[in-house]
Amino acid sequence: MTLKIAVENASGETLSSIEAADRAVLTYHAEYQPGDRIRFAVPRPGYYRVRVDDVVAESLVYLTGDGFAFTVPFDDAAIPYNPKAFKGDLHLVSLRAASDEEANAYGNLALNPIDQHDEPGVYPHASANAETRNEPVFFARNAIDGVTANASHGLWPFATWGNDSRDDAEITVEFGRPVDLDEIVLVTRADFPHDNWWTQVDLTFSNGETRTVHMEKSDQPHRFPVDAKGVTWVKVGNLVKADDPSPWAALVQLEAYGRNA
């Protein structure tokens, strides 16, 4: 088995790379430039642990292909990340296959700090039919990055999924394989009085089941037991806001607890 990490510039030229049989660790001694990508290559689809930066949490991801590219964020795209991430002239990147114990462990199967807006084949993956002003600080991927701070809005650590105040807005988390879920947790933004809140939403699963759940004004996680077997995605939609003057309500985190089916 060969694992490979490469840093490429906007023209596709390789700036630094490393290959390894068991665990690939790349130290990149240069400042990133706009358009740079970190490319990860794996021998086969499966579960891998990936670190794109030393201050971004390592991710357990399920890959359906032979790798993917992570685009180093700049300008607005960098706002949802820790401001220390991808800075300076020394960077640590790593890649290894996940153990069977890691791949099959019980946990939050929606968690993916390295999810990207338009990179297919890397799961879990979040997408939505509405994102406020199409700004990265409101992209769906922010709702599965593991950052649960919800007392404000805007710069990291307060990035959210913003639904552009649309009542028909929906956010979907795809797992890339069948999973069994027993709990959904929603962390909503609680920057009151700037924020409104949702009194109810629908949880819909790939098996066709839909459950309406109710929430209240709170800065604490909203926990909902479920029995969703063999599902490949979960969707949150039919958002009903409270009778409050603020037009803004936002989702900080969508967590889906369970294990592989």
From TrEMBL:
InterPro entries: Galactose-bd-like_sf. Gene3D superfamilies: Galactose-binding domain-like. This is Carbohydrate-binding protein. It comes from Bifidobacterium avesanii.
